[in-house]
Known about the structure:
The protein has 82 residues and is mainly alpha-helical. It is built from 3 helices and no strands.
Amino acid sequence: MAEAQQPAAAAGEDKTMAILSLVFAIVLPIVGLILALISRKKYPLGTDGHGLVKAGLIVSIILTALPLLAMLVLFGFTASML
């Protein structure tokens, strides 16, 4: 009986892309977001590295959204002071 082919990440391949997505999510959130979105195809649900990709995606979204939200609040507050 032939075995079903597994994705490359599940076959014991390293998790470099998943780790890079998490590291760049902290250092450069936009780059981390792009890497995490690309990595989602390589590490589907249930494979090694999926959790790292998910964490990289969540962290990069939060660290991208927080400065944008802070700028909106700051500019809204300063505009109301005028």
